[in-house]
Structures are given as C-alpha cells and as structure tokens.
Design brief:
The chain is 79% helix and 0% strand. Helix 1 (2-18) crosses helix 2. The longest helix is centred in the middle third of the chain and has 22 residues, at 23-44. The protein has three helices and no strands. It is mainly α. 11% of the residues are buried.
Length: 72
C-alpha cells in the first residue's frame, strides 16, 4: 500500500507540474490504468495490454491538459 501511495503521489506531482486541471483525479485515473494494464497483461497474457494502457493514459492526460494526445 505504501508503494502505491508513493507512485500516486509521484504521478500527482508530475500532473501538477504539467498543469493538469485536477492533478489528484488524473493521478488516480492513471494509477488505475497502470494497475489494470498490469493485471490484464498477466491475466490475459496479452502483450497488447501495455499499448492499450498507454493509449488510454495519453487520452486521459490530453483531456486533463486540454490538448490533443500525441500520436505514435
């Protein structure tokens, strides 16, 4: 639990420095995507889970910063 709190605090700090409208909510959302991507990768054995999680994270960041997500 302590590690998860540290990761969320780190992401929250990054979100705040990037200018997110609600850094707490963005950090919560991104850590949920991170946890879900990790779980999906393990449970489904699907290597595409990481890419899908990355796309979702980019969309969340873009919405929070009110910019367009970067395309890969």
């Amino acid at each position: 639990m302590a590690h998860k709190r540290q990761i969320r605090a780190w992401i929250r700090d990054l979100a705040a420095r990037a200018g997110a409208g609600d850094p707490d909510q963005l950090a919560r959302s991104l850590t949920l995507v991170l946890d879900g991507g990790l779980a999906s990768g393990v449970l489904d054995g699907d290597p595409a889970a990481a890419a899908a999680a990355g796309t979702t994270a980019a969309q969340l960041v873009a919405a929070s910063l009110k910019t367009s997500p970067a395309t890969s």
